[in-house]
Amino acid sequence: MSSAPSIRLEGLSIGYGRKIVAENLDIEFPGGQLSMVVGGSGSGKSTLVKHVLGLQPVITGKVFIGGHDMSSVSRRKRQCLRQRTGVLFQDGALLGSLKLKDNIALPLREHTRLTEGEILRIVEDRLAMVGLDHALELYPNELSGGMRKRAGLARALVMDPEILFCDEPTSGLDPVMSAELDQLLLEMMCQFDMTMVVVTHDLRSMHALADFVVVLGEQRCLFQGPIEELDSTEDAYLRRFLDRTPGERDAPRLTLPPISQDKMKLNCAELLGAKASGRKDGRCSS
Questions:
Q1: Which of 7, 188, 197, 284 has minimal CB crowding within 10 Å?
Q2: What are the E-state strand segments in 218-259?
Q3: Does domain 1-84+164-248 have CATH number 3.40.50.300?
Q4: Helix (DSSP H) and strand (DSSP E) numbers for the chain
Q5: What pLDDT does residue 272 have?
Q6: What are the structural domain ranges in the chain?
Q7: Alpha-carbon gap, residue 74 to 275, rounded angstroms
Q8: Which residues, other chains included, contact 229 with Cβ-Cβ below 8 Å and sequence gap of 6+?
Q9: For the whole model, what pTM was predicted?
Q10: Residue-wise pLDDT tens digits, 70-103
């Protein structure tokens, strides 16, 4: 049985300033399972992660991690909990001025008293896990998009986290690379006893990975539960989302009268004439 902590949200309202993105969220991400947060653009998926991590203050409500109320724990306890939490950002969030090995080593140098030899062994181990043991001396701009994602995952795992957040891990990747990253996340779940929360818009990844799913939309939580229950839902909104069925939209309205064909031809002729007169000896005049 997993000892990884659960994450519980009670009456949580999230947003920026006076703008509420989602409100009254009562959600529990099970400990030791891979949960996925899905929903339409602007539904608050990434915003939710920022609030759980404490990167953005909650508007109302509470966040509990492993039973600890994050609004009332001591500063020292909060820092300890954050050190046991890994984050894979959308773009990997690597520092361009540091070699890959130094990017991965950064949390260890900041939060532990390990020797440089011990740190290097851990870094090499984590990079080997994600298939980048050959890239220690490379800089981030020398890596492909998929390699940067894997490097970001290696850094997120370097402190042996009990909780791992992944924000859109497959965004910007081709289908093959997306499938490989999905497989890598599953392997990490097998190797580490942890709770993983993945934000995604990728329904293929959701079906490949998820034990538990949360669907956000209409400024609230529309569904939470096992993936099997979501697949069998008869809710009209959820079915449109899962089946990728477009909703009804108003017919487009023209705000300007169409340009006549004669006018179009005249404008093109004038433009071409202006370009031709501006050339001398095959070069454009300044």
A1: 284
A2: 220-226
A3: yes
A4: 10, 12
A5: 63
A6: 1-84+164-248, 93-160
A7: 70
A8: 223
A9: 0.82
A10: 988 888 888 888 888 999 987 768 888 899 999 9
